Amino acid sequence: LAETGLPMVLAHLSRVAFLPVLVGLWLGASEAGAIAETRLLDGATGFVNWARTSLRLVLGPAVAVGVASGCLSFHEIESSVQVQGPGIDHMAQRLLQWLHYERMAELSAAGVLLLGVGLGVSVLVVVGGAFGRKG
């Protein structure tokens, strides 16, 4: 078990899982009354039937919270250091090392890379959300 990635995944989930849960509760509570009543009248209860009727309407925020949780997990260092095996290095730890040892060229390149990837994913989410609402 210690040689698998399961402890790392569980540590990251324990740190950031509150965000998708809160957004999921908010999205579930904000379902349009007419859609919810129609689903109940048709007997379409449960997650699968909710996904068939309402998932398309909340796909943008669901993807956005997934990306935000991934970003928070990607920069998580406290829980990662506690559960990672010896010899395993990850990006947050490497950035912290570069910062402490004043490796500005590497730190700047990593910052540009992280901002570029974050900006690219943000643009894709916004464009995808705009096209998802037109149908």
From TrEMBL:
Positions of transmembrane segments: 16-36, 107-131
Record carries keyword Transmembrane helix: yes
Protein's name in the database: ABC transmembrane type-1 domain-containing protein
Organism: hydrothermal vent metagenome
Keywords: Membrane, Transmembrane, Transmembrane helix
